[in-house]
Amino acid sequence: MRLISTTRAQDGVELGRDVMIGRPDGVPLLRAGVRLTNRYRDLLVKAGVSAIYVEDELSEGILVEPVVDDMTRAIATRAVSSAFKTARDAMSSGKRLAPDTVEALEDVVRRILEQIEGSGGVALALADLSSADGYTFQHSIDVTAVGLMIGHRYFTSQGWTDFRGERHYDQVEERLSTLGLGLLLHDIGKLAIPLGILNKPGKLTPEEWTIMKSHPRAGVDMLDGSQWSPLIKSVVLRHHERWNGSGYPDAKAGAEIHPMARIAAVADVYDAITSERLYAPARPAADGVRAIIEGNGTLFDPEVVDAFCRVVAPFPAGTSVELQDGRKGIVVSVPDGALDRPVVRILEGEGARTEISLLHDPGIRISGWDHVSPPSPVAA
Ligand SMILES: [Fe+2]
């Protein structure tokens, strides 16, 4: 299976995975196995699906496994959309959100965690599954999945620090479920932002930007003060703070920002880059990984970036890549522990192919990659 741009897909090619775009009911727009026609291509383009997985001879035997399966995603979408509706109703009647009104979210976090653990906790390539509509829900789910992957790695290797500054390595499951709830709710304050600003295609004016930057505090204000864990509130309030103090709402820096919020910052930025937005097309995983590495030590906590690089593959299985000597190929698999050194199937004339492991050939560099983004999160 490999990932190709929808507009470049040939008639008759077989879809490798269900296309679940924008369907909260869990019914695919098109099913795996369907052969592409002009009409289907138009349908996909109209739905904002810029890339699809296809099964063809070149990519025979290459497996692409979703980390968050379609069933979990459908359940998560329903739970998040219902939590946001409850929050909206509470807001309009001047009330705050109590944890027991959104109990279903805990179940979503548990399901996502189970899948992450099932995938070995490594090698996630996560990008957008949906068209821009429903962005906030899908974004919340994808940020939760990548944030929990980072958190799993971070808490296992760095432990977590209590209010006395002591490190602990136990109760990781509890920490992860708290982190997961914070991640699912991190952008809930966007409900308080006028849609005209939220969905504006162009640049925001300084006044609009000020309103936009109020969403973390608006989010905390929506959560009933004494009932929610302070850690969840910290993720909601601080996910736009930056390691060097250049973020908002309070320009906090370094250890002033809770590690859970530092994890949320990396997951949020990575997902924003690799997702289809109303005002920007989705970019490939490699671009998202590069942006996080560029912010290492300035925008982002180096320990969090280190954990991120150990769980997010820049070139997941099925990605088309170009090597610096001009050879072209498709990523077959990604080794644990060296996510940027995949096995690549080289495509040569006459259907001949060889596979090379970049891990065993350290002199070979990937110099280019297809500018398409996976239509759903996949394990490399
Ligand atoms: Fe945000």
Write a structural description:
By secondary structure, this protein is an alpha+beta fold. The protein has a domain at 70-309: Hypothetical protein af1432. The protein has helices at residues 38-46, 70-92, 104-118, 135-158, 172-185, 195-198, 206-212, 215-222, 230-238, 259-274, 285-294, 302-309; strands spanning 2-5, 14-15, 51-55, 124-125, 160-161, 167-168, 320-323, 328-333, 343-347, 353-357, 366-369, 378-379. The strands form four sheets. The protein has a five-stranded antiparallel β-sheet with strand order 10-9-8-7-11, with no helix packed on it. A three-stranded antiparallel β-sheet has the order 1-3-2, with no helix packed on it. A hairpin with a 4-residue loop joins β7 (320-323) and β8 (328-333). α4 runs antiparallel to α5 (172-185). Fe (ii) ion (FE2) is lined by residues 187, 215, 239-240. Fe (ii) ion is lined by residues 187, 215, 239-240.
